[in-house]
Amino acid sequence: MALPSPGPDTRAFITGASQGIGEALARRLAQRGHNLIVVARREEVLNKLAAELHDAHGVTVDVYPCDLAREEEVDRLIDYLDGVHVNIAINSAGIASFGPFVKQDWDYETKQFHLNATAVFRLTHALVHPMLARGEGAICNVGSAAGNIPIPNNATYVFTKAGVNTFTESLHYELRGTGVSCTLLAPGPVREDVVPDDEQTIVDKVVPDFLWTTYDSCAYETLEAMAKNRRRVVPGPLSKGMDFISTYAPTAVLSPLIGKFYSQMG
User: Fold this and answer.
1) What is the pLDDT of residues 217-256, one digit of tens each?
2) Which domain holds residue 31?
3) Domain with 97 in it: what CATH number?
4) With left for phi above 0 and alpha for psi between -120 and 50, is residue 193 left, alpha or beta?
5) Is a pLDDT exceeding 80 seen at residue 201?
6) Is 80 assigned a catalytic role?
7) Structural domain contains residue 2
8) Assigned domain for 74 exists
9) What is the pTM of this model?
10) What angle do CA 228, 123, 30 make, to 5 degrees?
11) Are strands 85-91 and 10-15 parallel, antiparallel or unpaired?
12) Sheet containing 61-65: which strands, arranged edge to edge?
């Protein structure tokens, strides 16, 4: 099964397109000739990206600024998408928090839940039905290798990503034979190719450069996996290592170790 082909009236829909994995996927899809709908909160960043991709690749890029953590804004986005021929849907928007759950800002934690989980749930539901009616489409939801295990000091994030992981993989099997594919992207740490010294986090400093996955290589591997209708893609050596360890190592040993490391990030 190949990715749906670009067409004058089709759109690839991408949330979290203002930065990171979402932006890299938008760039990769534009290179392949897909018209886009890009979604994020920062309209000025999206407008700049849209102009750049149009000039470089001649594609149409529709900008839709939206805070996906707000129910009413997701309502409006779903209304906007009604009748639009979306043949590729990528839910990439997400945020994280670190530190003890009971000490986190509750507004931020609920925002994180609605952005990482509820919006993915609702947008997948809205877009999969017209894809099934046409017998063609490709969905990718961005979960995380962190969703494989309990991680103290990252509780809300792993709650949301564990849900996205299992939800997306379940849909993968449900959609077999329909012409609609569903792939989980479950990355570990991903970053820009070069990170200035003064912007490096503790993770950047601890992990050797050769183990990192860049946003662009992550996007490339993701689109290749979607084209093959793979259930899960884990890009890059560090992510693959994390995925393997979190799957097979004893949780009672691994979770406290990772949790201690994450407490420093908090």
Assistant:
1) 999 999 999 999 999 999 877 667 777 777 777 777 677 7
2) 10-265
3) 3.40.50.720
4) alpha
5) no
6) no
7) no
8) yes
9) 0.89
10) 50
11) parallel
12) 61-65, 36-40, 10-15, 85-91, 137-142, 180-185, 232-233
